[in-house]
Amino acid sequence: MENISGDNKRILRGVFGGGAQTFISIAVSIIQIRLVLSFVPLDIAGTWFLFLTIGAYIAFFDLGVGPTLSREIGFATGRSGGPEKAAAAIAGIIATCSRLFQLISLAVFAVACSAGAFFLGGRAAGGGEILAAWLIFSAGAVLNLLGGTAFSALYGLGHVGTERLNRAVFQAAGLVLAFAALKAGLGIKGLALAWAVQNLLARLSAWALLNRYHPELKAHKGVPSMAIARRILGPSMKWAGMNLGALFILNSDNILISSLIGSSAIPPYEAVAKVISAIMILSMLNVASSVPFLSKAHAAGETGAFHSLFYRNIRFGVGLIIILTSFFSVFGERIINVWLGPGNFAGFAVLWILSATLIMEVHHTIHATVTMSAGHIIFLKAALLAGFLKVASSAWLSSYFGIAGIAAGTLLAQVLTNNWYAPYITLKLFNIPAGRYFREVGFPLLALLALTLGSNVLLIRLTGDLPELPGLLLSFPLSFAIGAGLFIALVLPRDERLRAAVFFKGLYER
């Protein structure tokens, strides 16, 4: 437990840095959707959101090298041998991954340009303007890939907060650039140019920060190594396969909507999905920040520290997602109306399906992340099966239920695969009895879900006569306070409840 106590401050900084990035990301998403809809026609706006979805597929072509790089650095830090030996090993890993990213980026740019021209040429309004914007967007996506080494190295070295804040700063800068481009009348080409410049600046900044915090790595002059490349590519390709499945599950909706329903249907769906995505990122902050330390604890053989971080991640990650999603699933229409105006809400069917999907997604993702932090990349088949089921079931259900069918396909695919498989494997792998798990976290979290949903239904009835914005400003703090109180009472173990009581008592006495 000594190491976990020593790492807590860095994990906490990572949480705060990730929190800042999440809030900025939420703000950027909220403003950007409103901005795009204000300056360009609905079909062009839908095409831009389709660009961003395809951009996620381009990012997939890091082929899992980034996460593997972070984990290998965590292992190198946790092994004995002294700081000099660790620095030399890390420098070699970074140099090798940099070369891999350069080779991958060249191939990806060629594929993105040709595949994008084929797909967009026949499906998007705007003709040549769309294709020109796509070429600029592809260049920006490749710059994003090239920056993967520096971001992953900062993350693996424990500078999670710094890595997150760097991303946040340039997300905000990208929004300013996008506004300027739209104001200048550049349309979708301006949006693509702003995104490319944002990625270039973020990449340069990440390398500058890495050199500033760890000049010893530059002093060691790491050399690319085929032995390191072979060691990295094995688990990386497994990670990439899982990521491909995750992309089909979580990032195929806009492509399916564009192909089966029409790009004009994307913005209402995207609005709900953006909020859902932001809530998921916020709920995973503690998990993301703890990954390097989980890898370190596993490499050092500190089982107690590893289990402690696992239980903490489940309690806080799933607890937070329940509190926030319970509010959004009840007040979602009001939120969208205030944000984008009436007529832009995708409907409660889409909202409730995506909310249920989100809670289970966070739960199993925490399990999978903890397992993979220990180097067990074992979810490839389940992820690929889930991805196939998602695309097939969403395409089939959309013919009956429209965009609600797209959402339902995601829920169905996950329930049949990852939602149960990842927790089952994780509990078995780390010798955690299922009875103990349900007793300590499962049942308390289910009770939290039932009570927070009930309290939000009561709140919306009590504020039903208020205008939408004042009603939301009153309801959300009350909802969060009720949820936080229930979380402390139901989910936290006794020792953490006592610490929370002492903390709040100290705030009151001040």
Describe the secondary-structure layout:
Layout: H1 2-39, H2 42-60, H3 65-78, H4 83-123, H5 128-146, H6 148-156, H7 160-183, H8 187-213, H9 215-220, H10 226-250, H11 253-260, H12 266-283, H13 285-299, H14 303-340, H15 348-373, H16 380-401, H17 403-416, H18 418-429, H19 434-462, H20 468-490, H21 494-509
Helix pairs in contact: 1-7, 1-12, 1-13, 1-14, 2-5, 3-4, 3-6, 3-10, 3-13, 4-5, 4-6, 4-10, 5-8, 6-7, 6-8, 7-8, 10-16, 12-14, 12-15, 13-14, 13-15, 14-15, 14-19, 14-20, 15-17, 15-18, 16-17, 19-20
Detailed description of the structure:
This protein is mainly α. It has two domains: 9-248, no CATH class; 252-440, no CATH class. 87% of the residues lie in helices and 0% in strands. The chain has 21 helices and no strands. The chain has helices spanning 2-39, 42-60, 65-78, 83-123, 128-146, 148-156, 160-183, 187-213, 215-220, 226-250, 253-260, 266-283, 285-299, 303-340, 348-373, 380-401, 403-416, 418-429, 434-462, 468-490, 494-509. Helix 6 (148-156) crosses helix 8 (187-213) and helix 13 (285-299) packs parallel to helix 15. The longest helix is centred in the first third of the chain and has 41 residues, at 83-123.
